[in-house]
Specification:
The complex is a heterodimer of chains A (about 260) and B (about 425).
Chain A (H helix, E strand, L loop, with lengths): L5 H6 L6 E4 L1 H6 L1 H17 L3 E2 L10 H6 L2 H17 L4 E4 L2 H10 L8 E4 H10 L15 E4 L13 H9 L3 E3 L29 H10 L5 E4 L2 H13 L7 E4 H6 L4
Parallel strand pairs in A: 1-2, 1-3, 3-4, 5-6, 5-7, 7-8
Chain B lengths: L1 H30 L11 H13 L8 H30 L6 H4 L1 H29 L4 H4 L6 H33 L25 H25 L7 H10 L13 H11 L24 H9 L5 H5 L1 H4 L6 H22 L9 H4 L3 H5 L6 H5 L6 H14 L6 H13 L18
Classes of the chains: A alpha/beta (about 260), B mainly alpha (about 425).
Chain lengths: ~260, ~425
């Protein structure tokens, strides 16, 4: 996969339209890498001039900050802002709601001001402007799909409709879970929970949420966050439903519909 | 005789209002033990929040049936205060139904309207008692409410039923007296609900009816003054504090964690030492260990909490059996703040009592269970943010006590060394581009 970096653009004296912030999960996690590649496929297909930071990208500091380690967060924010401002970045698109939230809401006060857009909104815009055409309404036409709201996209930033309208553009049969949109139940990964064992309780949060998703009878659980994706995939496996039910990112759904 | 009643009323009213003001000022003092935080920007949006969230109870309508029932009690309580105004003026001036003559026909309509509300309040209070004690809704069965909080809720509902019953009985006795004729009692016409009670008073003499009417009048107003002074000790304080709490609610997107300027600067001076101020930096602490370390808004939040438990019902950790309950976070904060306030009142200044909000009230296990999903913040009908408190306590645990689970220490180390939360080489960050 040929993915242009900001350093290469700079060497050519060019500036891309948008920086694709891949994020740690999208870069390192094997499952999330597929989402990254799907999104790159879409970017290539619509011919947008984009770049990534490549090896220069670093963790935004989100898990550190939410665990309570403000020092670590500020260190990461400082370094990232130096790099982003150094490249004179104006617009960032990311497939990770945690990175999105931190760029949008927490970097500005530290001197990092960018137009930030989550890939759900980005895809919606591409669909609305006709840049993405899904063949015959898409390969998922009429399929029963449920969408899991990521906390950092939904409640944190009020983005509920964009991912849903992306799904609707594929003409899917969207079914909602009992708890959805602003009532949505967390997947259990936020607040740095992803990086530690869950506290003791009756049931794991991801299993509770996966059960709710499975109860809709949908064959595809759509997500828009790499961490939700991991948590829900584990929950589906726990139910031994992985042969019948797939957990897919909206970018993967769109990419596989591209004509 | 009339003068004695007037004097007695004035003394009672003055004492009740003095005591209430004293307790409210103490609460205000306690709230301002918190750290300063400027929340005065954008007054237009803030007033809008007061109107929508506090007055309009917008978030209650996430559950419309309960919202309507709550609205009936609330409207009953607020609107019947117009009648309480008449009662107070009658008490001070020694008059009876002072508003009758100036209002004429409108008076009968108004009292009937109040009676509809009073009846509504009684009906809803009974439903609410049923929900709490017989239906045993999960939200009300939590161990958060064991002991006083459970009784508090029932006391409030029973008091409201008693106050409204007194009001209706008073009107019924009044109507019965009017039928029998008494120059002191205006012919107001019959009332819609208390009218049903009038036949019960048929065989009672006018003198006894006057005694009943007067007793109800006195018990009703004494009850109101007593209830007023119960508020500062009760979850029912939300009826007042929901308003300032809506006004001072943070307006930022709820996903935004509060920035720590002191840490921001320390990192900046480390990276750019030329910017660092000369001389020793003043000692500083990070995060919160006790209520005084929290923002004053978090303390106002604690006093505004009515322990309804919508937060905990929405909390993914709480709902899957973890120890964390956002409602308990708020209740603990209020309990500790009351304790600290009393400590200061008794000793002139805070005398170390060997306790802290962190560990003694809120445990590490509770704090560790939070996914920062903001469901509690989203749910709260009175604009409380439990997550702010959780975050401040977490910060203290990590930055003051270096108290982190092993896995988090590993994650911090990985971020520091590999710029990612996993132990993977930064050189491999773009490895995915080399694959297909």
């Amino acid at each position: 996969m040929q993915v242009p970096t900001m350093a290469e653009f700079l060497a050519k004296g060019e500036t891309p339209e948008v920086l694709f912030w891949v994020g740690c999960a999208g870069s390192f996690d094997q499952r999330a890498q597929k989402i990254t590649k799907a999104f790159v496929t879409i970017l290539e297909k619509v011919g947008i001039k984009y770049g990534i930071l490549g090896k220069e990208e670093m963790c935004t500091g989100d898990p550190a900050r939410r665990a309570g380690n403000e020092f670590m967060f500020q260190m990461m924010a400082y370094q990232n802002i130096q790099i982003l401002n150094g490249y004179n970045i104006k617009k960032i698109v990311t497939a990770c709601p945690h990175c999105f939230n931190i760029f949008k809401n927490e970097y500005p006060v530290l001197g990092g001001n960018y137009e930030v857009i989550h890939h759900a909104t980005f895809l919606q815009q591409l669909i609305d402007s006709g840049k993405i055409n899904m063949k015959d309404g898409g390969a998922f036409k009429g399929k029963k799909i449920t969408y899991h709201d990521s906390c950092y996209l939904g409640r944190a930033n009020d983005i509920y409709e964009a991912p849903r309208s992306v799904l609707e553009a594929m003409d899917v049969a969207l079914v909602e879970m009992k708890r959805c949109k602003s009532n949505g139940l967390c997947c259990g990964a936020g607040g740095a929970q992803m990086f530690k064992e869950e506290e003791k309780g009756d049931v794991r949060i991801n299993i509770e949420r996966s059960n709710e998703a499975l109860a809709t009878g949908a064959n595809i659980i759509a997500a828009a966050c790499p961490f939700c994706n991991t948590m829900l995939t584990d929950g589906v496996k726990n139910n031994e439903k992985e042969d019948e039910v797939q957990v897919l990112d909206i970018a993967e759904l769109v990419a596989s519909c591209l004509s | 005789m009339q003068y004695i009643q007037q004097v007695a009323f004035l003394l009672l009213a003055t004492y009740a209002i003095w005591l209430f003001s004293k307790n409210i000022l103490q609460i205000k003092k306690n709230i301002f033990l918190g750290k300063p935080e400027d929340l005065s920007d954008n007054p237009n949006l803030r007033w809008r929040n007061v109107i929508l969230l506090a007055l309009g109870q917008k978030k209650m309508f996430r559950n419309p049936t309960v919202a309507i029932m709550h609205l009936i009690i609330y409207a009953g309580f607020i609107i019947i205060n117009v009648e309480v105004l008449e009662i107070i003026l009658d008490g001070v001036l020694g008059t009876h139904r002072l508003f009758f003559e100036p209002l004429g026909n409108l008076y009968n309509f108004l009292i009937n309207f109040f009676e509809v509300l009073a009846f509504g309040v009684i009906a809803v209070c009974i439903v609410f008692l049923y929900r709490r004690n017989i239906m045993k809704l999960k939200r009300f069965m939590s161990k958060d409410l064991n002991g006083w909080p459970k009784s508090d809720a029932n006391y409030i509902l029973v008091t409201e039923i008693i106050l409204m019953s007194l009001f209706l009985t008073m009107n019924a006795a009044d109507s019965a007296i009017q039928l029998k004729g008494n120059e002191h009692y205006h012919a107001t016409g019959s009332f819609i609900f208390s009218g049903f009670l009038v036949p019960l008073f048929d065989s009672i003499s006018v003198a006894q009816l006057v005694l009943i009417e007067r007793s109800c009048w006195w018990l009703h107003i004494i009850g109101i003054f007593a209830f007023l002074n119960y508020l500062p000790y009760s979850k029912h304080l939300h009826i007042i504090l929901a308003f300032p709490n809506a006004y001072y609610a943070r307006l930022n997107p709820i996903g935004e964690v509060k920035n720590m300027v002191n840490v921001q600067n320390e990192v900046k001076y480390m990276m750019q030492p030329e910017l660092a101020p000369t001389g020793d930096a003043p000692p500083t602490t990070f995060g919160a260990k006790d209520v005084m370390d929290l923002s004053w808004k978090s303390l106002l939040d604690a006093y505004s909490c009515t322990e309804c438990g919508r937060c905990s019902t929405a909390c993914p950790a709480n709902q899957t059996g973890k120890l964390l309950s956002p409602r308990k976070i708020m209740m603990d904060t209020r309990d500790r703040l009351e304790e600290v306030g009393l400590n200061i009142k008794q000793n002139g200044e805070f005398k170390d009592d060997g306790k802290k909000l962190l560990n003694d009230y809120i445990t590490v296990e509770e704090l560790r269970a939070c996914t920062t999903c903001n469901a509690c913040v989203q749910e709260c009908p009175v604009s409380i943010n439990p997550l702010d408190i959780i975050m401040e306590l977490r910060r203290s645990l990590i930055m003051e006590d270096s108290n982190a689970p092993q896995e988090w220490n590993g994650m911090f180390g990985n971020i520091e060394n590999n710029f990612a939360p996993w132990k993977l080489s930064p050189d491999d960050r773009d490895a995915w581009t080399k694959e297909n």
